[in-house]
Amino acid sequence: MQDMTIFLMNIFNASSPYSIFIKLIYLYCITAAFILNTHIQNHLKRHNSERTQRFVV
Description:
Blueprint: H1 2-13, H2 17-56
Transmembrane segments: 20-40
Keywords: Membrane, Transmembrane, Transmembrane helix
């Protein structure tokens, strides 16, 4: 795990054109994961609230 962290740090510190590209992909992945996570959470909450209302009625 530590080797992976060092590897990532080397990529981020590198001044090659590829490092910028990798940073963009990395940020895109984090953003996509965050948006998907919040979307799924909201969907599940809505679904659960609908289900509980149905049981109450």
